[in-house]
Amino acid sequence: MTSAVRRPIKPARAAVIPALVSLLAAACSPPMLKLPAGPRMPATDGASAIDQATAACRAISTITLEMSVRGSVGGQRMRGRLSAGLAKPASARLEAVASFGQPAFFFVATAANAILYVPRDQRVARGRPDALLEAVAGVPLDATDLRSVVTGCASMPNVSGVQAIGDEWRVTGDGNDEIYLRRDRQTAAWQLVTTLRRGTDGWRADYSNFDRGLPRTIRLVSTPGGRFDLQLDLSQVEMNMPLGPEVFQLQVPASAEAISVDELRRSGPLGGR
Hints:
By secondary structure, the protein is mainly β. The protein contains four helices and 16 strands. 14% of the residues lie in helices and 39% in strands.
């Protein structure tokens, strides 16, 4: 892989298509952040609160990182590690680190097109980014969603509709996402601490352990629950490094067997459901 996504990742056996992961017992995740339930009032400081909470993530055009993943998908406990490179507006590269050899899988996406290649099995699937990630890891995120999740950034917050819940909370929605901003005290900076995605493939992301305005720990759960409950711990984060178009391309051997998204899903963590 190119030097842009730092670590060449290493493969795994076919049985490891489910993903990120060796299937290992994972420690229980901490409880979700308790969201406020008090009365809501129009916020006079909505624009400044959103500007402050998203200043760091809005400045990011590219990001590379290592991501430790643990939790459960489809009732299976799992733990694993990913190397990621993400770029605006909608490009992503993921490599699932194996304990030896090359990566368990490579995933690249640009806009609405994605490829997932499993080198050990010599199998390749093509389709929508969210469909491939849902099939292999249970998480229906496209490249834009993935970048928003790991940076803790809402794509289009509704500034005019910001509501105050007491002095410490602000909340707004754009018809698709609802975001919660929080500050510990009036003199502290606002932080985007929760994003709620509505719909049948909905999810919730809670952000914590902030560094330079960006979260280093993300709790990502499905809503309604049951499909996935994951904790992402980020490290080796580098921002705005050059990521050329070649980073988001895969050279797949002509001998690789093409499989459908459904076939990939049957091999993944939700295949038994």
